[in-house]
Write a structure and sequence with these properties.
Elements: E1 2-4, E2 56-60, E3 63-67
Bound molecules: FE2/S2 (inorganic) cluster (FES).
Length: about 80
Amino acid sequence: MTRLVELEETGPRKLDPSDIDDEKGDVAICQCGLSESFPFCDGSHRRTEDEDPETTYVYEDGKRRELERIVTADQ
Ligand code: FES
């Protein structure tokens, strides 16, 4: 599976000690691109658990839809 994600930031987010979860003692960084608290994981990745490995998805307005494969001239 792949996901198309729109990000508006143009620079890094530096982590500091206040980013550490007081209860767990760790920092979880979002790798799925769906977190409302990006760059931190907020559990939104659970929405991807049933994604098909061969499908590309777009998540918009709380909904998921499948996207036609983008084929470039190189393929
Ligand atoms: S990895 Fe993206 S919300 Fe958890």
